Each structure stands twice: as structure tokens, then as C-alpha cells.
Amino acid sequence: MTSELWLGQESGCGVQEASDRITSMKRILSLMVPFSLLLGCENVHREESSVPKDIAENAVTSVPKKLVVLTFDDGNISDLTTTSPILKRHGFGATFYITSGWVGKPGRLNWEQVKKLHDQGFEIGNHSASHPNMLHISEDEIREQIISFDEACAEHGIPKATSFAYPGGHHDRRMVRALAAQGYLTARRAVSPEYPLYDRGGPGPAYNPSEDDPFLIPGAYVRGDLSSNDQEFREVLSRARDGSICVLIYHGVPDVHSHCSTSVELFTKDMQYLKDNDFTVISVRDLSKYIDVTKRPKDIYESLLVRLGISPKALKCDASGQEPVFSWKIKTTRPQTQSAYQILVASSEKNLNSDEGDLWNSGKVESNQSSEISYTGKSLATGERFYWKVRCWNDPDEAEIKRVSNWSAKEILSEMGKIRVSKYSSVASFSFE
Question: Cα separation of 318 and 1, whole Å?
Fold first, then answer.
């Protein structure tokens, strides 16, 4: 990834070891995966994993809290001169995604230096041959972008990559098929479509291996001098729990291009924070020590699309007046608002858990209002406790969809424009005096 990820402009160990048994099984499996991937496409659900059940279960349950994956895009010379020494000092792993056509250009690594990063134990990943917007090229050209990189690495004594980073973070089903056919195991995208793609970088979703396809690993944060908010950065890192993993995206330290550059001071501070707070920091390759990267969902985009809606949070009921008044806040990671809501009020939590509003069911109300909504249901007895919840429909932001249209697959753009209903909120209660 490079500045093209940030609005598509042309411009990128502290490991807690799994058991020896798991590691050896994974190594055997890695030799088999290219053949198994050729037997299907991204829509095929592998009901029976080729990993023995006990091994797969152990791998999934062994994801530690505070697991972070470090990635660096484009192949800046600072990867070797600045970044590598800092990582080695802390014992951190990392993946360096190289654009083979940029190797040897001003400010970029040459092949000898790429090989040196490999020899130091870091993973070398494929970031295409020329960093095009791959949404706008043919399937044959997609394949050529992948293979040309592989051939260049082989020519310079660098092992074939098993991980790919989409140029600009832009992805579609054709790319996933091509990568699987070439024996790749994983691919990293950026923060979209769940989060907006901004030139400054910023937050994205955590990687949830139980939901996300290994060819669509999201970036949890695109870090740089334009996205240097420490509070936001640390909040993102706090999501590395309960089986979720934070994948961090950096470019050069510093970078050839100022808008995606990270200062040495900021990077040093970030790495020290990870070290001081006991994060486990690994490469993409090392994910296989914790998860089964061959396990894939029925549909590669299902988990992403579910996240495009809104949800209600922070429910509040003011029961001090003649009738209760309800309010909530909207949670969304994208520019969009609320188009409708539905409130249920029940006499018992049991009724509400069955979606039975025996005291009031507002029905679907077309409105962007989410505060000061008066109760209009059955009479409420004073001194008793009542239960309520709400669900909401989103109102897609057409201007935002248009803004990202050049960097999003047509399928994704269509899904961004759909109205989706959220799940009901958690149950809240109130008493009417």
C-alpha cells in the first residue's frame, strides 16, 4: 500500500510460541495449501478443514490478547536503515510488502537490501509489480502483477511470498481468486469499506479470524504523521482481545512521500508503547501459529457487509415526566445517519427477549430522530420496572459513496448504498414514578 491507498493517488520476535506439534503440522500444511486452494474459489466453504480438528481448535483458541501484526508498504530504504533496527531491538516481527517495479528507484530499497531484510528474519510480501489500481485492470493483468513479483524475488534468491497487500487497499473477488490460484495464503487490505478511506490514514476494523476471510485481512490502523493521534491509536490497539487481532499499516519511516510518511520520533514512540504494554508483535506469516489460515467463510464479503450499517448505543430513558422519553446514540464507522427506528417496551425482560413489546411497539418509524421520543403505549403502573430496546435503519451517504467510487469494487459500492436494519440494542430498563 502507498499513497494510493489514501485516496488512490500514485505514490505501502516477541512471539509467544505455539506448541512444537502445532508448528510442525502448520509447516506440513503450508506445502499442501496451494493445491487445495486451486480446487475452489472464494465462495467455497471448506466444511472439513485439512487441519486435524484438535490442531485447528488449539490454534484458534491460542490467539493471545494484545496480538499485533506489523506491516510496512512499498519498500522504502528506511525499512532497512531505520525500521529494522528498532524492530530487532524490541524483538518484533514484521512483514515488508514490496512493489517489485519500484525496487532500486530513488528512496526505495534495492534487491540486495530486500534480501537483507529477508535474511534478518522479516517476511517479504507481495505488493504487486507496479502498484496499479487493480480494480481497473483485467484478470490477466492481475495475474501478471502477482507473478511478476514472484519471478523477481526468485531471481534475487528471495523465497516465494505467501502474503499479498492490495495496492491502495482496493480489492475484489477477481483478485482473491487469482491469489488463491497462485498459492498465496493471506492478503491484507486496508480499512474500507467498513471505515472511510482518508488521505490522512486512520482507524479501521480489527481482524477477526472467525469472521474475516484470510484474503481480506483488514488494517486496524493506517499510521503516519497525518494520523498521529495517540488516543485514537491506543483505542484501536485495545481491540486486540477476545480473539481479535490488530494489523497496523505503516509506510516509510520516513517515506518517499510526505503524506504517508512516519517520523522516526513517532515510530519509536509507537514501538516503545507496544513493548511497554506487553503486546505480542508478529508478521503476517506468523499468524499461522495462532489461527488456521486455510479456513474460509462461504462468502468472502459477508462479514464486511454486515458492518456497513448502524447500531444504537447509550440508551437513556427519562421517566421523570408524565410519560417516559427515550433517547439513544448512533454508532457507525462510516459517514451515514439514521433513517428509521423501532422501539419495543415490555413488562418483562423475557417478553422483550422474544421481541414482544406487550406495552408498546412503535413499529418502523421513518425518522432521523434519536432523542426526546415520547412513549405512546399502554398505561404504565407507577413503581414497577419496565424494559425497552430499539433498532435502527441507516441512511447511506451518497456523497461519500461517490467520493470513494474509484477505489471500491462495484459490488461494494452497491452494498454501501443499501438501507440495512440493525439488530436490536441491548435491553435497558426504567421505572415510572
Answer: 49
